[in-house]
Amino acid sequence: MGFFTDAYDLFCITTISKLLGRLYYYDPTTQAPGKLPHVANNWVIGVALVGTLSGQLVFGWLGDKLGRKKVYGLTLILMVMCALCSGLSLGYSSKAVIGTLCFFRFWLGFGIGGDYPLSATIMSEYANKATRGAFIAAVFAMQGVGIIFAGLVSMIISKLFLMSYEGKPFDVDEILSTEPEADYVWRIVLMLGALPALLTYYWRMKMPETGRYTAIIEGNAKQAAINMGKVLDIEIQAEGDKLAQFKAANEYPLLSNEFFQRHGLHLIGTMSTWFLLDIAFYSQNLTQKDIFPVMGLTSKANTVSALKEMFETSRAMFVIALLGTFPGYWFTVFFIEKMGRFRIQLMGFFMMSVFMAIIGFKYDYLKTKEHKWTFATLYGLTFFFANFGPNSTTFVLPAELFPTRMRSTCHALSAASGKAGAMISAFGIQQYTQDGNVHKIKKAMILLAVTNMVGFCCTFLVTETKGLSLEEISGEDGRQNETKMKTSKPDSGHQDDGWE
């Protein structure tokens, strides 16, 4: 539910950004619907990503220092408060409203950032090695559900207001085309993001600290056995001698030669692939409002009212998410333990690159009215293979490759590099799509195709983790497994070490 909330909060801004332009930036001299200036648009959409990057680094580090559970509740409180405050952005002028909105969305993103490394780490440290990948992927798959609900909730609320307050099309009446009641709509959409987070607070606080953190970092094998027993509903015996062995093999710090020799390439691999993936993934999600009119899924702005435009944008986002985005996540959940992380990531990057290149090179052909469904299908397939591919595996791998003492921090570093890529899409790639310039959109899609191919190559820096326990992967069991880790096929005959 944390990840459901994260995705809803991050992506619902796509459905309301055009409405904000209509409400606060209408200029009668232009004889065109109000539109957020490029700088304001970039900040409204991108500021939460800046906050997410900051939150990932801070909470990821705190998760290793203070424990997963202690920090987990704090992120939720921050998300609830800032989701509510985002909808209460005050002021009479456009600068005041957008300024306060950006302020609260930064801190909302800060809380969301903490959920990334903590959710992945907690799930990886509780799961059995045979199903660990599927469980972590299932946590991340809730992002797809969150994106669907961002479109669905926006669609329902805008439709309800349309039924009572529908304005005239812009080309009929410029003033009355922007419904005054629309100012409530975007606020309600943002504030509803607090609800799922609030509902899960009790269960998040009841969750015990992970057994691995309690044993290896706090050195309390007895409490670790009790915590694991609560979650798994079985009796577990504490093994003090094994704990001493794990602790002795896990004392080196992040900034050390030993860490670099053991995990340096893995960290470079997880950071680079997540960075490159998010340039493409967030470019697709954040700019789809600009692509939809070209695909014929939404009407031209001057032929509809403000709320009608929001409804059509939300509906298109919902359909693309339901048919393209959502299935990809669950294909990963079902196939990750069969195909492995490595193959799924390679396949996803390659297929994304192919479909984006086709869209880029054939854009003039695809944007015609008679080919809009071909365009929509290709566009949807890029989402499908992002999620049945690197968007899921880049979340799973950092939660498995690194030792307990720095697992949350390394996941946070990987996730933060991803958000740096997302910021490039929000503040850079978006510039190519906002004006609907065909040449610029073609250039953006070809650039993203190249980015995905670089991600394909960087995938070879990481390794397969399927079928191995976390201690085998990180070397925490006191053995040097680096030679084994270089292969993409783990030894299926290797005996369980007791932890799993």
Describe this structure in words.
It catalyses: phosphate(in) + H(+)(in) = phosphate(out) + H(+)(out). Belongs to the major facilitator superfamily. Phosphate:H(+) symporter (TC 2.A.1.9) family. Pfam families: Sugar_tr. Keywords: Membrane, Transmembrane, Transmembrane helix. The chain is mostly helical. 73% of the residues lie in helices and 0% in strands. It has 24 helices and no strands. It has helices at residues 2-11, 13-24, 38-66, 68-87, 94-126, 132-165, 182-191, 194-199, 201-206, 211-217, 221-232, 240-248, 257-286, 288-295, 306-339, 341-361, 363-366, 372-387, 390-396, 398-401, 407-427, 438-458, 470-474, 482-485. The protein is globular and about 70 Å long.
Which terms summarize this structure?
single chain; 500 residues; mainly alpha; transmembrane helix; Low affinity inorganic phosphate transporter 4; transmembrane; MFS_trans_sf; MFS_sugar_transport-like
E-strand count: 0
* Proportion of strand residues: under 5%
Instruction: Summarize the amount of helix as a percent range.
Output: over 70%
Mean pLDDT: 80
Which structural class should the secondary elements be placed in?
Answer: mainly alpha
- The SSE string, one letter per element, is HHHHHHHHHHHHHHHHHHHHHHHH
The tally of helices reads 24
- The residue ranges in which pLDDT falls below 50 over 5 or more consecutive positions are 480-500
- Largest sheet composition: none
Rg estimate, integer Å: 23 Å
Shape estimate: globular
End-to-end gap: 25 Å
Assembly type of the shown chains? single chain
Subcellular location: Membrane
Region (Disordered): 472-500
Transmembrane segments: 43-62, 71-90, 96-114, 135-164, 184-203, 316-336, 342-361, 373-392
Pfam families: Sugar_tr
